[in-house]
Write a structure and sequence with these properties.
CATH class of the largest domain: Mainly Alpha
CATH topology of the largest domain: Rna Polymerase Sigma Factor, Chain: A
Number of strands: 2
Largest sheet: 2 strands, antiparallel
Number of domains: 2
Distance between the termini: 88 Å
Strand order of the largest sheet: 1-2
Radius of gyration: 32 Å
Number of helices: 5
Length: 156
Amino acid sequence: MNGSGKKDYPAREALADWSDERLVTGLKAGDDLAAETMVRTHGGWMLAVARRILKDDALAEDCVQEAFLNAFQKISDFEAQSRLKTWLHSIVVNQSLMKLRARKRYQEGLIDRLLPQFDENACRIEGPWTYLAAPHEILEREETRQLVLSKPVLPR
């Protein structure tokens, strides 16, 4: 701290020089500069990893943002058994894979096959029957269909 009560922060250019230990200690203490340093130091390569997996820039950006949120929330669990970069790599990969799974579950598709189909007489084409109709039911339906098609529409 300097005489004015403010923290003495290193120059922005020196942010990447922070050791993992110093960075983790700062993150665990809730230091904003440590959080900024982690994002600036690791954000670029994390975005590249997410882009390689997801093949979608917007999804990759969301994924990295969620990975950082996850890392900030779980930083107290980080025990330095591995490098911080390795830990962040596993988080961003897992986040990307979860995005892929979610995208497959809710895959967008054409709705044309869900819309009703109509023949040249503007009658709806029904799918295959799930039960067999009795001959008299089929005959009644066909007679009704012919009556509907043969009736002229009266003007109002």
